[in-house]
């Protein structure tokens, strides 16, 4: 039994179920070079990630959907987005607001969950990942990729929940993500929908990058350092 099988009991059988094409795609992803975290925000690619819960389940246990939106060189291309639907649409928890007419780059169980998740890691590449409340989002994303593809994502996560209060000490609105979006006038088409929320967070990241660059935090590595410092101060307080 391999070390990975010991960490994830029953996982070998799942890996054996992958087709040769899927295994080759996973291997190709694993061989991608790591992102250079010392490049300027405006010369690199970030990927915003959000998850949606299934009815009656926590996202980490059974994510209904995983969505990703890229911010490349500081810009959002609304075609550069992806969503994987992992459960029957009727099992997706209800979202607030109206239905979106399109779901960019959507992949669903109709083509096979493994194919969709392979497409997701291709979309992500080795970019640094960003979300709001990473302790909720990261286990859901990393867990489903480990269980389904045998992938140890191993990418850095940047948490806007920690960065925003440090970058905007004169603001610090109470109320979490909703308050930050409202403060900066960022509209959300359908709140608690993974793709819609990821687009909103991408816009929030643009605001954060502009402020961070003015404060001398000009790279993904500097944002990670800033987040670690804030966490340390919070734990020490």
Structure description:
- By secondary structure, this protein is an alpha/beta fold.
- The protein has a single domain, classed as Ribonuclease H-like superfamily/Ribonuclease H (Nucleotidyltransferase, domain 5).
- Helix content is 44%, strand content 18%.
- The chain is built from nine helices and eight strands.
- The chain has helices at 3-7, 11-16, 20-30, 113-124, 134-149, 160-167, 176-183, 194-214, 220-236, and strands at 45-53, 63-72, 75-85, 96-97, 106-108, 129-131, 157-159, 190-191.
- It has a six-stranded mixed beta sheet, sandwiched between helices.
- α5 (134-149) links the parallel β6 (129-131) and β7.
- α3 runs parallel beside α4 and α6 packs parallel to α8.
Largest sheet: 6 strands, mixed
Rg to the nearest angstrom? 18 Å
Counted up, domains total 1
> CATH top level?
Alpha Beta
Low-confidence stretches: 1-13, 97-110
Structural class: alpha/beta
Number of helices: 9
Q: What gross morphology would you assign?
A: globular
Short description:
By secondary structure, this protein is α/β, with parallel strands linked by helices. It has a single domain (3-236), classed as Ribonuclease H-like superfamily/Ribonuclease H (Nucleotidyltransferase, domain 5), CATH 3.30.420.
């Amino acid at each position: 039994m391999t070390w990975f099988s010991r960490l994830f009991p029953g996982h070998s059988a799942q890996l054996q179920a992958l087709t040769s094409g899927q295994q080759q795609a996973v291997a190709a992803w694993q061989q991608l070079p790591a992102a250079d975290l010392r490049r300027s925000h405006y010369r690199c690619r970030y990927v915003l990630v959000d998850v949606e819960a299934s009815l009656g389940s926590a996202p980490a246990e059974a994510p209904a959907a995983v969505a990703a939106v890229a911010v490349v060189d500081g810009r959002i291309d609304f075609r550069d987005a992806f969503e994987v639907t992992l459960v029957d649409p009727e099992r997706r928890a209800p979202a607030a607001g109206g239905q979106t007419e399109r779901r960019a780059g959507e992949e669903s169980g109709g083509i096979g969950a493994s194919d969709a998740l392979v497409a997701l890691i291709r979309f992500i590449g080795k970019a640094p990942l960003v979300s709001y409340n990473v302790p909720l989002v990261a286990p859901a994303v990393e867990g489903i990729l480990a269980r389904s593809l045998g992938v140890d994502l191993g990418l850095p996560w940047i948490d806007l929940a920690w960065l925003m209060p440090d970058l905007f000490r004169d603001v610090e609105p109470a109320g979490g993500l909703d308050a930050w979006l409202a403060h900066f006038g960022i509209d959300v088409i359908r709140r608690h929908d993974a793709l819609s929320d990821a687009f909103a967070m991408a816009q929030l990241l643009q605001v954060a990058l502009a402020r961070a660059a003015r404060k001398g935090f000009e790279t993904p590595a500097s944002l990670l350092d800033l987040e670690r410092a804030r966490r340390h101060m919070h734990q020490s307080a």
